[in-house]
Amino acid sequence: MEVSVPGLLMAFRAICAPAMFVLACFEFSGPLLAAVLAAGFASDVADAQIVRRTGTATPALRYADTLVDTVFYATAAAAMAVAVPGAFAGAGLLLVALITIHVSRATFELTKYGRVASYHMWSAKALGVLLAVAMAWSFLTGRPNALVTCALWLAIANELEGFAASAILPAWRPDVPSLLHALRMT
């Protein structure tokens, strides 16, 4: 098995996820949690840049990146729920909607393509930045903030955009920047 820098960066991000959760459970400081989050986010940005610059993006690598990103941000949210009292107060309906849409979309894609989509849409990139900022702010201050709600709305929009792309694209393909791009591909 060949080891690549993007693969190592993904593995690092995958390790950051449970580390963040365990640190939150043992009541480590918010700045430490924010630092682990920032390191994982930086690894996400770096692996994407390396893959683009070297032209080494493969469908398998993009698929793995999608799975690692999902686990990383979901685990970061769980860590935030543990470390920041009321982090998701008043956002229960948004969380239920997001989880329902995500599971429905994944089920649809698994049925249609045999795996979940790895579009890496522009909305997903914006979501990653917003999630990192919102969660880091909550970890650093120990308080919930309005950016978390904004991130949940953007996550729902991103999931709906991906769902629509999956509904119209006849075959699995990675790296579809937007729904408009998906429409042009059909």
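The record above closes out task 2.4. Task 2.5 opens with a second protein, given below.
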Amino acid sequence: MARRGLFLDRDGIINEDLGYVHRVEDFVFRDGIFDLCAAAQAIGLAIVVVTNQAGIGRGLYTEADFQALTAWMRGRFEREGIGLAAIEHCPDHPVHGIGPYRRENPRRKPGPGMILDAAARLGLELGRSVMVGDRASDMQAAVAAGIPTRILLPADATEAEAAPPGTIILPPGDLRAVLGHLGEGP
């Protein structure tokens, strides 16, 4: 049987969403993220980060800036004893991207591309996986990828209203509440 995955959005779930976070000094881990990931890892879920990074496409920071922050973030997880199976990102934006970054891309959420790519590479069973995000677009990507357990910790009320039917909506930022839903799924 293929392994299950825990797919996590980055900004708003792993770290506080302060707007185009790209420097270590601006990166603040959300309370409970290490507990959530340790619990997921303990029951065998592969932890995968799927993050739109339009700040690259908008010219606000570079791919190298993102990779440096990502290496630091991965190191912090490793120090907590947590392995991240993959970190997928999409720098493109269909309207605000500059030059080659101004394009539609199926990897950009709400498209399922980042999820599908990681699942194929890691051999994950999406029909038994979990997605946690703070935006309706995270949930829409999960639906398109075939992830049945979708958990929204909404950034605001409009995100909760726009979430697809069947989405589990929890209090904003309450990562510990997600723990009770990790075992769900067919």
